[in-house]
Structure formats: structure tokens, C-alpha cells
């Protein structure tokens, strides 16, 4: 037994290294893509970086559906969304100064809240799975389209300084060729996919050895493991003072977690039973997060607020453990 655990922890370590390297590459790529398409790093992070860091969640969702564990897949997505806010954002703002934007950050926060409300409402009203899938898929398209429009309009307003920097980079030819960016994007996505898959598989096997239910695994252990790309990407970004990447990754990740990926689950696996306690916690945590985006508009998130979010993470873990069948 000790030897098995030791080997699993070793595999998990390899997965973490892959994730860390891919996260660094993804952060560098986000700057290049922002310069190439003349979009704010926030918008690039909301769409490209967020989707890239969410590949492990997508892997878990597809694998769970194939194994007939749709509950595990949805539990993982809900758990990951809560962890993104209460652990990832909390830790990033606790150990590094995260300054919030003045305009697009708040607007995208409202988009996230709207997506969560749609997700919760479909569950509360018992909307048929197929209709729910189409509603959530439509929400994804609306959210991504709106984010792109915000980015394009931002060129003339709040992103003027960034656009001036982009112009200088283009003159100095510091923007990498498109083919090179595509190769880096593929490598970063592959690194996150392999690292996330390896880490998730190892953590799941470790939890099996310890002996806990699949519901608990999905909401806590697997969600923690699949959130590692977001955690490492956000910590890397915050260390480099890339505040827009921090916020964009978290908001974008949660939007995909609660629209696109559940749409896949409901579309292929049908209805899934979820505890109303976890759904309530998801809604409450999102409301707190969006409120913080407005309260600290244009300011650095203070440490007390970060500690408050971190305490909600432990409340979530304790509640899930208490409800474990």
C-alpha cells in the first residue's frame, strides 16, 4: 500500500510540473495574442487562457460520461467553480497585490453571475436535459461574443495605453509570427491536457485507496486537481503583475464550467441530480465574488477580503464532507 501511494504521488508530481510549464507558456502566449489581435489581456484570458486551463475539467467530464458517472462530472464542474473563487482568487490576492479594472472586469463579472443564475434556474425548474443543454450552449455563445465586443470597443476607451504599447511592439517586431504562436498554443494546451489528466488520474486513485464516495471526489478532490492549471496560471500571472490575466482566467474559467461543459453533460448524459446545498453555495460564492469586483473597482483587493474568501473554501469542503453519503 505505501509503495502504491508513493508511485501515485510521483505521477501527480510529474503532472504538476507539466501544468506549471504549460501555464508559463500560456501566460506568455496570452500577451502575444493580445498584441496580435489588438485585444486587452483580460479578453484574451477570458476566452483563450480560460478555455486552455479548463481542459482538465473537459477531460474529466468526457471520461465521466463515458464511464456513466455524469454526477461526478457535474460535481467536478461545480466544485471547480467554487474553488476558482474561494481558493485560486483568494490565494492570488492574498500573496500578491491584485488590482481590479474599472470597466470590463465588472461587466464580465455580471456575465458570470447571469450564467450562474441561468444554470441554477434550469435546475430549480427541472428544465428537461436537452433544453438545458441548448440554453447553456446559447449562454456560452452570447458570453463569448459579448466579451469579444467589449475587447474591440475597449481599443478606443479604457485600453488606450495598452494599444499604444501594442503599436510599439509591432514597430519593434517583437510580436511572434502567427505560426509560432499557433505551435505554442498547441504545446501549451497539450501540456495542460496531459498534466491535468495525469494529476487527476493520480489524485483519483489516491482517493480510491483512502476510500471516499465519488460525489465527494467530484466536488472536492477532483475539482481541486482539475483547478491546478487555473491556480498555477493565476499565481504566475499575479507574480508578474498581470492582473487582467488573473481576473480573466477566473471569470472565463467559471463561465465555461457552468455553460459549455454542463451543456455537453446534459446533452449526452441526460438529467443529473445535484445537491441543492452545493448549488446554493455556488450561487452565494459567485454573488460575493461579483460584489467584490464592484467594491474594489480600480483598487487592490485587500487581505481581509481574501481571507474571507479563503474561509468560504473551508466552509465548502466541510459542508461537502458533512453531506457525504
Describe the protein.
This protein has 325 residues and is an all-alpha fold. The protein has a single domain, classed as Up-down Bundle (A middle domain of Talin 1), CATH 1.20.1420. Helix content is 83%, strand content 0%. It is built from 14 helices and no strands. It has helices at residues 2-37, 41-53, 55-66, 70-95, 104-124, 129-154, 160-171, 178-210, 214-226, 228-239, 243-258, 260-269, 276-295, 303-322. Mean pLDDT is 79; it is low at 158-173.
Task: Summarize this structure briefly.
By secondary structure, the chain is mainly α. It has helices at 2-37, 41-53, 55-66, 70-95, 104-124, 129-154, 160-171, 178-210, 214-226, 228-239, 243-258, 260-269, 276-295, 303-322.
Q: Report the sheet-strand fraction.
A: under 5%
Which regions have little confidence, pLDDT < 50, spanning 5+ residues? 158-173
* Structural class determined from secondary elements: mainly alpha
Number of strands: 0
Q: What do we call the CATH topology?
A: A middle domain of Talin 1
Task: Write down the overall geometry.
Answer: globular
Which value, in Å, is the CA radius of gyration?
19 Å
- Number of domains in the coordinates? 1
CATH-wise, what's the superfamily? Answer: NCX, central ion-binding region
- Average pLDDT number: 79
Supply the CATH class. Mainly Alpha
CATH architecture assignment: Up-down Bundle
The major sheet is characterized as: none
